[in-house]
Amino acid sequence: MQEFTMRITSVIDHAARESGPREIVTRWADGSETRTDWSGIRRDALKMAQALEALGLKKGDRVASLAMNHSRHLVSWYGVAGMGGVLHTVNPRLFDDQLEYIVNHAEDKVLCYDAMFQPIVDRMKERWTTVEHYICYDSGEHSPAFEDWIGTQNGDYEWVAGEETDPCMICYTSGTTGNPKGVQYEHRSTLMHAIAGLQPAAFNFSSASVMLPVVPMFHAASWGLPYAGAMAGIKFVFSCVNDPAVLHELMLREKVTDSAGVPTVWLAHFQYCDKEGIDLPPLKAATIGGSACPRFMIERLMKNGTRVQHAWGMTETSPIGTVGGPTWDWEELSFEERVNKTAMQGRPIFGVELRTVDLDDMATELPRDGKTSGALQIRGPWIIKRYFKAEEDAVDADGWFDTGDVGIIHPDGTLQLTDRTKDVIKSGGEWISSVELENAAVGHAGVAEAACVGMPHPKWDERPVLFVVRAEGSNVTGDEIVEHLKPLIAKWWLPDAVEFVDDIPHTATGKISKKDLRDRFSDYKLEA
Ligand code: ADP
């Protein structure tokens, strides 16, 4: 067979050649809209690659983006990789210390940002020691404007050639403990991950698909959508704001068929539709991941005729590990059973292997019996081997990466996540899933948010304590919540105490930060 070097540039070449006129729509923060297409994205990416070289950038150099989802950001994904560079998508929601750390650690030379993040740039400029050039994706008020900057070039450019294993993108984990860690994706790993993402058991894309990704392009490579979408030649609809009213209008007007995002996005959308008394948008499929998708969300979307693809992954896994969707026994399942199955995290797509091991010794492989939970490990061609600039591999001798998640694998390959290794509660030698307890608690109408933490106990080592933020106007008591939990979980899982708090701390990516919660209650004592 012929030689073919797996480089990301082949993806944009293909998209421009085979799906050139397929539209890419952007709704900007100021309410204006622009339309380009795959040919336009490639043309601008060539110009951007040229413009970066004109600034003196060389193969392997890092370019940062601090931006929402839009066509110019998409151009950067291909333009940076096309000149042999590495795009570092920075999460604007990180805290200043993290922003300082990651940009300096990645040694970003150029930073392209949205005007809405000008305050971050103004604040951080002094602290970012490696950035030599700032480009603004919108206006040129404070920095050169992106369109003007690439407009100085003619686009007569050849993509930089190289190895399949050259890096093309770097993302940092938000780092719930210690400094964030960089995960560098390669051309080959990215391309393989994108091909795997196309399959019916994953994104199920065809050229007829119209995707509005709510998952940000700065979060875990936007789940690889900008690459998989280019391969299939789908239409993209981007929005720089996540206001449900804006998303709803775009979804209807642009005939969006697919969307992807974390569960909170849908929560906001439900609230909007309820308030307005309107139906949910008629989407064919919604990919939901990043944290567990609650049952009521799955039920409501399914009743709306939307296929729910509940996905699990992490920055370290490019990120797709597993995706849920109709399985071979779908026709035989009741609606209830379908919802139950979808509430789990789906099945591994080709390329990745999963296993669970004993939480005590972290070595003994556990049966795939749908009952036994253990530490979840993964390996495959788009799974991390070593963090950026780290001295040692992050995997064992056989390539297994420990995800920090705890789960159960079912005989049909379905993964059911039950907790994170550091959050699971050990009571009298037995494990309690803090996540299951929380999920059961938020099912009570008086509970807005709940977090369960293992607290030291003189007899049982640890016992669960449930921290609850009451829903607005609710006077729910601890006893009422325990009564609500009784039919839902094992008796010995019931929390020893329910504590009401005004707020629960979150990480920069919006997940509950149990570390901060534990710190806040470091003096907490349970009686024997
Ligand atoms: P960060 O580490 O910055 O929060 P990641 O996206 O890498 O961002 O987080 C990955 C983690 O998110 C996983 O290890 C898992 O704990 C959680 N997660 C992702 N998808 C799901 C899901 N579908 N259900 C439950 N947890 C999930």
TrEMBL record:
Keywords: Fatty acid metabolism, Ligase, Lipid metabolism. InterPro entries: AMP-bd_C (IPR025110), AMP-bd_C_sf (IPR045851), AMP-binding_CS (IPR020845), AMP-dep_synth/lig_dom (IPR000873), ANL_N_sf (IPR042099). One of its GO terms (biological process) is fatty acid metabolic process. It comes from the Bacteria. Its EC number is 6.2.1.44. The keyword Ligase applies. Residues 436-511 form the AMP-binding enzyme C-terminal domain. Residues 14-388 form the AMP-dependent synthetase/ligase domain. The keyword Cell membrane does not apply. PROSITE patterns: AMP_BINDING. Pfam families: AMP-binding, AMP-binding_C. Belongs to the ATP-dependent AMP-binding enzyme family. This is 3-methylmercaptopropionyl-CoA ligase.
